[in-house]
Amino acid sequence: MSNPLLEVRDLDIRFRVDRNLPPFRAVNGISFDIPADSTVALVGESGSGKSVSAMSILGLLPENAIVAPESRVLYRPAGEGAGRDLLRAGAADMQAIRGKDISVIFQEPMTSLNPVFTVGEQIAEVLRLHMGLGLRQAQARAEALLHEVGIPDPKLRVNSYPHEMSGGQQQRVMIAMAIACEPKLLIADEPTTALDVTIQKQILDLIAALQQRHRMSVLFITHDLGVVGDIADRVVVMQDGEIREQGSVDAIFREPRHPYTKALLACRPRLDRRPRRLPVIDDFLKGEARVELGERPRGTSPEDEIILEVRNLDKTFFLKEGLFRKRAVPAVKGVSFRLPKGKTLGLVGESGSGKTTVGLTVMRLHEATGGEVLFEGRDLLALSDREMMAYRRRIQIIFQNPYASLNPRFTIGQILLEPMRIHGIGKDDRERVDMVLQLLRRVGLPDASFHKYPHEFSGGQRQRIAIARCLTMKPDVLICDESVSALDVSVQAQVLNLLQDLQDEYGLSYIFISHDLAVVKYISDRVMVMNEGRVVEMADSDEIYRHPQQEYTRRLLASIPQGLQRAKEME
Amino acid sequence: MSAILGSPAPAATQESPGLWLLAWRRLRHDRVGMVSLVIVVFFLILMIASYAGLIASDWNKEKGVSYANPSFLAGAENLEAKSMEERRHAAKTPPVDLSDVDPLAPRYKEWRERAAKIAVTQVKRSETLPFGGDKWGRDVLKKTIKGSEVSIFVGLASALLATLIGTVLGAMAGYWGGKVNDFLEWFYNIFTSIPYILLILAFAAVATSTGKFGKGIVPIVLVLSLTGWTGIYRLIRAEYIKHSNREYVKAAQAIGASHGSRMFHHILPNVSHVALVQLSQYTVGFIKAEVILSFLGFGVPVDMVSWGTMLAEAQNELVIGKWWQLVAAGASMAVLVTAFSLLTDSLRDALDPKLK
Questions:
Q1: What is the C-alpha separation between B345 and A536, in angstroms, rounded?
Q2: How far apart are CA B291 and CA B283, in angstroms?
């Protein structure tokens, strides 16, 4: 272990953004090692510079990047004494190293694979380029690789096109391509972020197994400390282009020294406890590390007043096939549930389970195929569009992607005033502006936001704006469709706290849709597990996590990354 | 929060720049774009000034001799003017005396006296004009300025109209989809299956022969825009299909915004840059189209002048070596069209910096 495989020294990367501005400093003189035959996790939130650092190893930085002269990335495979500085290697050298010595897996397997070639051809191409194999040999090796990454029936699947495979299988193919030439270093850039929990678990296991079998090194880039605990030997925590802390995985989880690391560990909701508020990064940076606020009771009782009841909801999509035929694709099948007033109903399931469709159909953003949605005793699905208007404002939705759900051409003021104008809330615009400013302050944004455009805000701030937009209409029911999934953990904690506060303050009822089981457990009174359009299991949230009745639920719970659990157990 | 998100700038109380202001700032740094913009604005000012009658209002006056030389070619021989002059002198020689047989002879004196009371001023026609003269001795420079009025107006007006038609139809097809989309797609396909030039000529023939489309340049504006909306229709339709599935439109539906509001209040500002770039491209295309139509005789009526009619006249003049009308009209059109095209490119870059 004396000679690390890769040494990163004083890496400093800036980006030229605008002629009139000084270059933006993305990575600020960081140094770390990747030892041979081990996994190093590079952890940080968006904008921390983790991906940029990894891309500089591969020489894949965009053209406007400036690498400071003192930066070094020394690559020193066993047997080569001196090592090479990858930052100064020529284009041809890098071409030879990329894919052969150092290979990479990206976040989105769908866009990383070429849709017009079969997966076999794509794997074979790598082999023929770097290993000089013949066509027949390469095909045979591709089959063996697909078998190795756990794709069933590799003889058949080698001729499949990417779109014929699921997201998890595509990521396996990407991994097969990456390990095809027996690389010394595998860079995995958020390889599981786009996948469901169960698939994520399988991919993590696969990467860990391959690392041990091939005795290669892995640089694992992620924003999720939980994932890291399962897989890494060493952890490097980055924030704002600087390394906050690095050490062995045990040291980081057991005795985090830097407040930022402590905060990252603490602000994820956990399965075993439910504090009144989640700690946020600021608490730690200010040094108030101990915020004990007691447990929040969650759960429902039969006496709860029911605000929304859904009975046998059906939704079928029709896909056009050919000129006249249509194919029915059922998305939601006979879903029934009750939402008690002032409580939260969590909706969990993997992608394609129909949980988002339930949310949109309840709001009539999709037309239901059958069933009833009773809101205070009236069936919303039977109302005409005009009658629905009165109820529209009382059920609102917050979407997943705060970057897409705000109109980029409207100022925040326009965005927040519009619903009030439509529903005639407030006497005149003066009064409405006052209400908007109050709401902005309530969700923690400065008054100056009123005249700004959405692109001037970060993801968390935009999600606050989306929440404020719903609050303008004083809704009774709020549907949160993966509303915190796209946010960094620390920001996620802030938004979750805000949602809890608003529920306490206004008595809102939430339908909280998420694939993140820990978050759902934290915020929900009752949890409904969905799979393939049906309700698998529904129970109070503590109950369902402690005593899952169904096999599917058990499988979901088992795939939650264990890293965090480990950290908690040590406290 | 401020530690991660960065506290907002303290002096941010003033309004933030919107899309158009940002685009303008980027455009101002684009040298080619700015030069093109200045040229285009110059032509627009010319056009407006000539429309208001401030300049070139006397383009129709026959100021010079026939085919007067340009000032910078003052010495060149002008055979046409000479022959005209000779003919006029020939006409002035007194006719044969017929007074003995003419019954009206006694009245001649009275008539002459009456005629003498009416002042007839013989304008001295000048030998040269700034950029030469045409067959009737009209100033080619003034004709070019007056011609820009028609050419640019036709280009702009028909581009605006075509963009309007294309945007509204495209928005409807893209937003509603289904039956509306099917119908409009059929309509579009029929339209585009006919060769473009033939379609224009057919429309123009109907418009000029029946006169139902009005007089002057109105029919030509209608012909161009009714045949030209198809390109922008497709683009806007594609944009609307893309945008109507975006979450911000769903969010607008969730707050109860009506269909019209979603189509034109929410989505339109997000696709307007596409329309603007198309508008600019169309203007270039239609200026050229007007020239072609006028050249072929389907364009503006004879009592008006456009660059197209000037080019048509220049056809016959070239044979006798009078090139200035051709150069004046051709060069103005080339300069304007080039500037407009470059401006379009810069505009596209300024509005969508990611493309660069």
A1: 56
A2: 12
Chain B residues with CB under 8 Å of A469 CB are: 251, 255
Q: pLDDT 10s per residue in chain A (571 long)?
A: 457 888 898 999 988 877 777 888 888 889 999 998 899 999 988 878 888 888 888 888 888 888 888 888 888 887 666 678 888 888 888 888 888 889 988 877 777 888 888 888 898 988 888 888 888 889 899 999 999 888 888 888 888 888 888 888 888 898 998 888 889 999 998 888 777 888 888 888 899 999 999 899 999 998 888 788 878 899 999 988 899 999 988 888 888 888 888 888 888 887 777 888 888 777 777 766 555 567 778 888 888 888 999 999 999 888 776 667 777 888 899 999 999 999 999 999 888 788 889 999 998 888 888 899 999 888 998 888 888 888 888 999 998 888 788 988 888 999 999 999 999 888 888 899 999 999 999 888 888 888 888 888 888 888 999 999 999 998 999 999 888 887 888 888 888 999 999 999 899 999 999 988 888 988 999 999 999 889 999 999 888 888 899 999 998 888 887 655 554 454 4
The residues pairing with A479 across neighbouring beta strands, listed in sequence order, are: A397, A511
Q: CB–CB of A463/A445 below 8 Å?
A: no
Q: First vs last Cα of chain A: how many Å apart? A: 31
State the Cα–Cα distance between residues B14 and B8, nearest whole angstrom.
13
Of A19, A281, A408, the CB nearest to B3: A281
The pLDDT of residue B9 is 38
In terms of phi and psi (left: phi > 0; alpha: psi -120 to 50; beta: otherwise), the region of A348 is: beta
Look at residues B266, B355, B273, B75 and name the one whose alpha carbon lies nearest to residue A410: B266
Q: Does the CB of A421 have a partner CB in chain B at under 8 Å? A: no
B251 is written with which tokens? 């969010």
Chain A environment of B1 (Cβ under 8 Å): 280, 282, 444, 460, 494
Interface test with chain A among B4, B22, B245, B246, by most A beta carbons within 10 Å: B4
Closest residue to A404, CB basis, from B8, B18, B247: B247
Q: What tokens appear for A430 in the block?
A: 């003066």
What is the fold of A306-569? Rossmann fold (3.40.50)
Q: Does the global pTM surpass 0.80?
A: no
**What's the CATH code, domain A37-64+82-266?**
3.40.50.300
Closest listed residue to residue A564, CA positions, set A523, A527, A525, A518 = A518
Using a CB–CB cutoff of 8 Å, tell me whether A390 touches chain B: no
Residue that has been written with the tokens 């968390």 in this structure: A460
| A396: Cα within 13 Å, side-chain hemisphere | 22
Interface of B with A in 196-255 (CB under 8 A): 246-248, 250-255
Task: Write out pLDDT tens, residues A309-326.
Answer: 999 999 988 877 666 777
Q: Which domains can be identified in chain B, with CATH numbers?
A: 34-59+138-355 (1.10.3720.10)
From the centroid of its chain, how far is CA A513? Answer: 14
Q: With an 8 Å Cβ cutoff, is A458 touching chain B?
A: yes
Q: For residue A551, how many other CB atoms are within 10 A of its CB?
A: 10
Nearest CA to A410 out of A471, A463, A468, A451 is that of A451
Rounded to an integer, what is the distance from CA B79 to the centroid of its chain? 35
Please give the order of strands across the beta sheet that includes A534-540. Answer: A395-398, A477-481, A509-514, A344-348, A526-531, A534-540
CATH code 3.40.50.300 region(s) in chain A: 37-64+82-266, 306-569
Q: Does B181 touch chain A (CB under 8 A)?
A: no
* Structure tokens, B172: 């409807």
CA–CA separation, A387 and A491 (whole Å): 38
- Cα A23 to Cα A17, A67, A70, A301, A543: the distances in Å are 6, 11, 17, 58, 53
